[in-house]
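Re-run with default settings, no changes from the original entry. Doing this only to confirm the output is reproducible before filing.
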Amino acid sequence: MKIFFKILLGVVLAGAIAGYIYWQQHKKGIVKNAIQNAIENKSDSLYFIHYDSSQIDEINGNASFYKITLQSDSMQQAMLKAGDSLPNALYNIRAEEVTVRGVDIPGLVQGQHVSAKAIIINKPRIQIINTGADKPKPFTYNDTLELYKKILGRFNSIRGDTIRVVNGTVLITDKKGKPLTTLENINISLNNFLIDSTRNYQNIISYFIKDVTASVENIQLPESANNSRINITNLVYDAPKKILKAGGVQQYKQHNTDALVDIKNVQVSNLNTDAFILFQQLKAGVVTADGGLITIYKKSKKLQSGNESTVLTNDLIDEAQIGGIQLGKTTVIIEDPEKPGKPPFKINDVEFSAADIVSSTNGGTLSNLVSNANWNLSAGGFSFITKNNLYKVRAEGLVLNNKAGTIKVKHVAYKPLLTEAAFVKKLSIQKDRYDIDATDINVSGLNFKKLINDNVLETDEVSLRVMLKVFNDRTLSFDTSSKVGRYPYQALLKLPFQLYIKRLLVHDGEVLYKERGRKSKKTGIVGFTHIDATLSNVTNIAARIKTNSTLVLNAKAQFLNAADIVTEWRMPLNQSDSTFSAAGSLGAMNATVLNSITEPLGLAAIKNGTINKLAFDLTGNNYKSKGNTTFLYNNLGVSVLKMDDNDELKKRGLVSLLANTLIVNNNPKNGNTYTGEIDFERDIHKSFFNFLWKSIFDGVKKTVIRK
């Protein structure tokens, strides 16, 4: 019996030794065949696996495979050509090296599961062939699970304490090989990974959103519906810290290297990773960016009111709910695709901060982004040239606050591009040349939601300081076009947008009117300084006009820096009514101050006299004015002038004598005060302001010259 057991033990030992020798000589082939069979048997023969060489340490459970290829065979190529019965995506995978540490070798050989302490995939290149005919098919639950199973052989279970991907590349193409999406230089660290029969799409994705850190050097996203592409550089995703960073986000048109969007150093904190990965929803704490460039293509939709509302589209995410946004200095360019020849509108140094941003959905109006949030926007300014190429508009120092309903603007300028001489040379008829500066503009009580969504500007108060300079050369031919229906309050009713300003305040303003006389060829200046004015009920909204149909102007100023003037105008806002009223008074002044106006423009000089008061009260319409003036003065004397051969003003002696005989030198005279009646026919080719001052002058003239 002992001999039998010795023989049996010898046979077992010999068999074990022979088996060990055989395993050492053929273990690589056994493992290789096992892996290949697992792939081929469990992928409907669509894929085969190949690797050049391997190192296997079965005692410690370590294995390395070099130059691995997992790709489709000739049958798959035939299926691609036929286009029948294709899965949504096909995969070609290559890797320089796959190393597993602490692996369960028996489980690996049996083709049932992979279990390892560490799996390191070095320089993988994954090509995903999207089999959609016209556009990429959406990934399903199974598609995503297939990818991760195919990477390691589609075993029944895959477990890894740590999985690392080093310097990987992902290329998504269509059937013809056209790139749709590329991800370059991918580095991923994934912990506590497990796939088995109990896992579904959401479970496997949860690994990537719960316990993964990843970086991608460059991401090229698919072409969007508006023929633009988005590129993201230096992306860092840290799921445990709930942070998403991007060194840069660029968007550009196809076949054009000029960026439409170029934002630097974007960071999303407190990211809801489930919403971001599973549903493409951005739910986060704060989004910050250093700024850069943003181009917005204006897209309008018609509202029931007949106005248009600007619409923004979103190519990156489907829905956003963000705690806050911080955007550094950014250049914003607004282009109108419907007007390709029109220069874009450019705003410099825009900074934006917002809180409580909720439900910004793709294709929603701009109000969906701004109306439900508390935000501040500041900008260095913008400028543009007017359509007639005569003026440049410039704004500086803008600050907007949605929650407070305020706008502050440091300076707005409307500047002529031509000198007075060049402006006149360009014209064929008389036309005013404007030079406007408005500073310290403050808007309060502004309804931003109505402004953005309905194109309606409603605000409680606007205050500003304004300086207006107007120049006209009367040596040019007259403008014979009719000015009927073009009074300021009539022009208000014709604005292309709805407007309501409860109160508009002008502080310490200035108006200078400069005119070149038709006969004298010399200029005179009429100046109003230290203007304080209030305009009430500035509106063209029918419902507002039904409640209050009168626009009221109350103003006080200094006339020629010599006398105080106070005035009130009441202007109708009904389309069918053009009747306005104006009343006011001018304080005491030396009459000779008027020579800066009367000499170049009226060829008359005031030799002496004192003006004590001028009061007027009139009503007017499109064609006529009526009212009266009370002009009080003492010791008034004048000289009538003419131009001499040297183009200098010269007194006309005889005519001056005759003029002084016609003038009543004093009012009141002999204790009687004379009131001049205003009854003036408007020249319909002249402006509202020309009509107003000539109506007043009609009463003054009837007071001074009664014969």
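Residues 144 and 627 are 86 Å apart (CA to CA). The chain has three domains: 28-222, 228-385, 442-704.
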